Amino acid sequence: MSQNPKQTHPQMPAPQLNQDETRVLGECEKESLIYRSIPLGLISFFATQYGMQRNIITTKAKWVKLSASLFLGYLIGKISYAPTCRKKILTQIPDSNLAHAIRSGDPRQIIAVSPQENDHQSYSTQSSRDPHEAVVFIPDPVEPDTHTVPVGVNQYGDPIYNISK
Questions:
Q1: 15/95 Cα distance (integer angstroms)
Q2: Which of 94, 123, 130, 140 has the fewest other C-beta atoms within 10 Å?
Q3: H/E/C letters for each residue in 131-149?
Q4: Contacts of 101 (CB under 8 A, 6+ apart)
Q5: Contacting residues for 144 by C-beta, under 8 A, at least 6 apart
Q6: DSSP state letters, the chain
Q7: Residue-wise pLDDT tens for the chain (165 aa)?
Q8: pLDDT for res 32
Q9: Nearest Cα to 32, choosing from 76, 89, 78?
Q10: The dihedral formed by the CA atoms of 109, 113, 114 and 119, expressed in degrees to the nearest 10
Q11: How far apart are CA 4 and CA 26, in angstroms?
């Protein structure tokens, strides 16, 4: 089966981001670098160096290990800032295409709405929750007489309850 070189594969168009989305993403990029990536990278770098000084980590391929620890700290910092960036997008630009894509969970939805349709389409999700809203789990009501007090302890240290009423 040979492919025809003139045959083109359908490609997705590049995402269209407006100025607000670009600004917020730029802020996220800058803040993730300053507040997470550089500190975690330096902490992992100096922790590796300290481990080498104390002979916890061998000094063989010293610069490879130091570079790898620096890079991993940087990468972990970038990844750990993603939830904060999502919250920032949802609070600062809640009606944007990017916020809609985050709420729907599908990153390909960013390009589903063109900028011309942006004014005419309302964004509603099935679960429109405030990202700052606290989630409270309330336990099922329990009858007061169902709580039992242990009457002793077995040989393994587990409590023994009297189940006869």
A1: 16
A2: 140
A3: CCCCCCCCCCCCCHHHCCC
A4: 107, 108, 109, 110, 112
A5: none
A6: -PPPTT-----PPPP---HHHHHHHHHHHHHHIIIIIHHHHHHHHHHHHHHHHTTSS--TTHHHHHHHHHHHHHHHHHHHTHHHHHHHHHHHSTTSHHHHHHHHT-GGGGGTS-TTGGGTPPP--SS---TTPPP-PPPPP--GGG---EEEE-TTS-EEE----
A7: 455 555 555 665 556 788 988 999 999 999 999 999 999 999 999 999 999 999 999 999 999 999 999 999 999 999 999 999 999 988 998 888 888 888 887 555 544 444 444 444 444 444 555 666 666 655 555 555 555 677 888 888 887 777 765
A8: 94
A9: 78
A10: -140
A11: 41
* pTM beyond cutoff 0.85: no
Alpha carbon 68 to its chain's center: 23
Q: What six digits make up the tokens of 84?
A: 């904060």
CA separation for the pair 104, 45 (Å, rounded): 38
pLDDT of residue 102: 84
Which residue is associated with the tokens 């005419």? 120
Residues 6+ apart with CB under 8 A from 150: 159, 160, 161
* Tokens 């600062």, located at residue: 92
